[in-house]
Amino acid sequence: MRARTPVASDAAVEAGRRNLLQRIDPSLVTAQPKPRRRTAMRLALASAATVAIVGGLIAGDILAPAGGPGPGPAAATAAQVLNDAAQTTIQTADPVVNPGQYLKIDSTNLWGSFSTEQDGSQYQWLDTEKMTMYIPANRDDEWVWERSGRIPTTFFDEASKEYAQSTQMGAKDEVLRGENGAFYGPGTESSFPSPSYLDALPRDPRLLLEDIYQKTVGKGQSVDGEALVFIADLLRTGMVPGELRAALYKAAALIPGVTLTDEQATLDGRKGIAIGRVEDFSHFRQDIIIDPKNGLPIGERQVLTEPFGTMPAGTATTWTTVETSVSDTAP
Predict the structure, then answer these.
(1) pTM score of the predicted model
(2) Cys staple from 176: which of 46, 125, 183, 319, with CB 3.0 to 4.6 Å?
């Protein structure tokens, strides 16, 4: 039977976090997060971010100081899930894309939509969009991106359903092409991380978290929430190699407030374990869903913790599932 990974105490986590913030920007130690406006036509339920640096990270395991109080059971379980996933994902082979082949990334996406008319009427619903990205072995070659377009699929009241269906012009399939992922013309950049970007990220979880904080400082609402959002966004690209996935999982285990949120999470028909963190100021929870059998990320989601308009608490207002494979051809 595998031994349980010790977890850093809450006090150690907070002390390490404050020390890190003090080094990077002393004003952040006492700064309070600010509420963020939700924008029309898309529920802007994004969070904010930073890093929690903890002492005692030895050989990839999170160790509590001797005699120190342990964290709550949910936090301890989340850390265990993430550390187990880190160990498992290292043993899962990454796709090998040979010359002439493509990394194929299939994703299903759910987006929250919101509209306010001139008479003050407000409407909310959820759209679904399917995408397939073909990334050539030589990234300087042509990429291909298939998109289904956003289709209204989930409604919470009849008025919003009628509005969405009456204004929906019909989803239009499209195929975009661009060298090195520049789908919108020369000078535009791919939203996917480059190999050099991924290679430059630290593999030590503590250093990785510090780097994440440096990249996200001043963004979002809370110094801890954005760290998890950054990790979720990177994982959902489907391009993160195994050793970096492991480091990201271990980094997530260091973030205060990260807990096990669902042991049987289902996302687009796929089941996994969800770990997440609540963002109090915008009333949503960021989840990452992991397949415990291979340590691969199934996807990520943002879930309302309080009702918003006609959407009840517990609604996943955005989610993305990702699955990667290798293809010999592209459309």
Answers:
(1) 0.78
(2) 183
